[in-house]
Amino acid sequence: MDWEHYLPSASDTIDTFSALLKPLKAFNSIASTIANVLSRGPMRRFHDISETSAKGVHLLDEMYQRILADIIPKHMHEEAIPIFRSVMGQILALSEPLPINVLNTMRRCFPCDDDRYDVKLLMGHLGSLVSGTSDSDIPIRPLHASFYDFLTDESRSHDFFVDASAAHRDLAFASLRVMGDSKGGLRFNICSLENSYLPNSSVPDLEKRVKESIPAELSYSCRFWGTHVGSTSFESPLAKEVEAFFDGERLLWWLEALALMRSLGGSAVTFSCVADWFSVRSSSSFFSQQILTSSGVVVGSCRVYAC
């Protein structure tokens, strides 16, 4: 994800935190951040950080390390760190931020049953580091880009390192399964339009219909499943799910949903990502070529939906 689009710029981070070292009273912002997640001795932790000799990025790293170490003590690492990495990996690998309830819905479609736990169990302790932890409808995102940089750099985060790329596999499976769900997934005439000959631009309440008929997890899956597939290593189980997606009516229902969401143009990117993903296997090169060949025809024939 391009976090700079959603998060405050981190360009002044080093200078800002270096300046905070001089007047001790300027550490109030750090103290309040830490106090939000600590259940014991916030002032003691405040003094610990304010008295450190670390500067710049090292000060940031020490702050994040202290906060996370307090949330997940050393004796809990074996059990808690895999959960932390899985949940934060999901959040960092997303193409756009999603709220807790949507994260949980998608997590229930992850390929491994052990990963289907409640995101809120962890997010409730990370209120000083990410937004949206107290409201299930507010997108979860790091409060600052520096936290993303910290977590994804193993030399800085150590035990708390998060390999965001590993989460793309789970999100690819989840997106395909959300779209294929018989209850809340894609279906014919998903917005129950009375007249199929009427251009979308002429439907007066289309935006309302889309909001009511296409839930957030389905909207996200339709727009970004190809990105997640293209960002993971080729494997047969995932390839079978992708092939099943193209073998049936679901493909046309997907294009219809994209058009209703005014995102039909993104289908070309999806086709390209998926075709490239299949092309790494010679046995799948024919299927890859089929995707590329059909994509222009299918998207072109469906442009009327976007009118």
Essential attributes:
307 residues; mainly alpha; two-stranded antiparallel ribbon; 16 helices; globular; disordered C terminus
Summarize the structure.
The chain has 307 residues and is mainly alpha-helical. The protein has helices at residues 13-20, 28-35, 42-50, 56-71, 77-93, 100-107, 120-123, 145-151, 154-157, 164-180, 206-213, 216-230, 236-246, 250-260, 266-279, 285-301, and strands at 130-131, 141-142. The two termini are 29 Å apart.
Total strand segments: 2
Shape label: globular
Major beta sheet, strand line-up: 1-2
Largest sheet: 2 strands, antiparallel
Mean pLDDT: 81
Topology, pairings included?
Layout (H helix, E strand, L loop, with lengths): L12 H8 L7 H8 L6 H9 L5 H16 L5 H17 L6 H8 L12 H4 L6 E2 L9 E2 L2 H7 L2 H4 L6 H17 L25 H8 L2 H15 L5 H11 L3 H11 L5 H14 L5 H17 L6
Antiparallel strand pairs: 1-2
Description:
57% of the residues lie in helices and 1% in strands. With 307 residues, it is mostly helical. A two-stranded antiparallel ribbon has the order 1-2.
